[in-house]
Write the structure tokens for this entry.
Amino acid sequence: MPSPRVALYLQDAHDLRDGLDIVRYAESRGFEAVWQAESRLVRDAIVPMAAYAAVTERLKVGSGVINNWTRNIGLLAATFLTLDDLAPGRIICGIGAWWDPLAHNVGIERRKPLVAMRETVEVLRRLLHMERVTFHGEFHHVDGIELDVVHGRREPRHVPIYIGATGLKMMELTGEIADGVVLNYCVPPEYNQEALESLQIGAKRAGRRWEELDRPQLVVCSVDLDREKALDTTRELLTQYLAQQPHIAHASGVAPEIVAQIQSILGWPATHEQIRQAKHLVPDELILRITASGTPDEARAKVDEYRRSGATCPILYPVGGDVRLLIDTFAA
């Protein structure tokens, strides 16, 4: 019987050079993929992805997730062509609709996000298939462009496109047009039921079987032999996320009054001291409901709940210092 699939998620908590050692260790312990975050204005996904691809041999490398607003579509296709040159057949393009207020604060108006995503996926896929593309939509306008490979591989590139969907309408679109969905973190396992129903609606609309779509899921995971330490580390992370990422706060089911209280304490960007002042507002019950935190046995049990709820491959977001303990906990 094959080992359960498992992947690693890295954001900005570790020195980038240390991240190279971490992904090599994850590969040696049977992890199938590493996904690099790009959400806050801190660390972009593409540079780490290239580094991870360069130091591994089998590990798939995904963007978890870039947004579809800030990179020109031609450059976006050229970027993933380049990554595929570095690690042929191992690159995954995870892409999402970003979130406000961050997008608004940098001058992006996220109007008609479904139309924008549909256009992005269509043009990106056609370019990576090495087609010559003319497309005039509402968001993308290209005239007779193609990936201009003179020296190198001219064959179509297999770069699966996964949409990082949280809202149910985006989930429907994902079922219709994407190769997979990156299910979000900080949601309870039961959130997946409604999400997968929406995925099924979209897949049916396109004459597809939703079961054939890959469904990896981000899962915040804090593993420590000291249970209280594991929970407290997650508490700080949730304090920041609930204040700054309202789409996650909504999907998590947290009471709006708790979110408002946390937001009244945290600034933008939040300081560590502000997070410490507000973290008491995040109860243990919430941590245990929407993350895999605690002892190794508790973390494994919670991750299994997400698997039973439809996730095909948990993407574990390590919170806390001992990433190797987390990797060993879930090693094949």
